[in-house]
Amino acid sequence: MDWGMENRLNQLMPEGKCFFMPIDHGYFQGPTRCLEKPGETIKPLLPYVDALFCTRGVLRSAIAAKIDKPIVLRVSGCTSMAGKDLANEEITTSIDDIIRVNAAAVGVSVFIGSEYERQTLLNLTKMVNECEKYGIPVMAVTAVGRETEKMEARYLALACRISAELGAKVVKTYWCKDFEKIIEGCPVPVIIAGGPKCETEKEVFEFVHDGMKKGAVGINLGRNVWQAPQPVASAKALQAIIHNNASVKHALEIYNETCK
């Protein structure tokens, strides 16, 4: 692996583990509760995360350039919740702009099994082809759009393996029953996506802990952190699970103690 690629991956995944915080939700759903002012939302959470996942628009307009966290740049989009199909994505950001904002990595959604499967996989391969020239890792995001029934191991394992085969250096996917089957079939690191908003912090800690025990290298959680009743406490507890192998019980203790 080239030095630049390895260096960026080490920035993103200290000791091989990572806690990415996505704040890119507005690219398809507009203003999002608790994310109306993303710069303010992330301020108290930054000490606990390893990287931010965002669009170039929010990066330039809401994130201070003095930030000391690496950026994973969302580079696919052009659809919305008001449109017909969330899978109809294109590449939104040139390699020149990726370099210009000093992104440590980029993220591209792929919609396996959709009408736009080939198009989104081509988006991924085009980004890999461009980013490899400059040592910038590409994260494939195995998106399901509105079809949440696809969040099961057989489908996600297929999506992750295809993404890795096409050159993604890391894959973001959903936790599900039999999550180990996804890990077993994917030759690159797998990061757990947040998925639907959970009802309790315990639920979040449980699926994250289970996914880590089964081989995930980290998480990319947004709504289950910054929409939580106590975002800082949630972030601190999740950091302990990711980087210190904390149990669910210990994570809850950290959460409760931080809430005091």
Short summary of the structure?
One of its GO terms (molecular function) is fructose-bisphosphate aldolase activity. It contains twelve helices and ten strands. It is α/β, with parallel strands linked by helices.
Detailed description of the structure:
The protein is of the alpha/beta class and 260 residues long. The chain has twelve helices and ten strands. The protein has helices at 3-12, 26-29, 38-42, 56-62, 95-100, 117-132, 153-165, 179-184, 201-213, 223-226, 231-244, 248-259; strands at residues 18-22, 51-54, 71-74, 76-77, 90-91, 105-110, 138-142, 170-174, 190-193, 218-220. The strands form two sheets. Strands 1-2-3-6-7-8-9-10 form an eight-stranded parallel beta barrel, surrounded by six helices. Strands 4-5 form a two-stranded antiparallel ribbon. The longest helix is centred in the middle third of the chain and has 16 residues, at 117-132. The N and C termini lie far apart (46 Å).
Descriptors for this entry?
single chain, 260 residues, TIM Barrel, eight-stranded parallel β-barrel, two-stranded antiparallel ribbon, 10 strands, 15% strand, globular
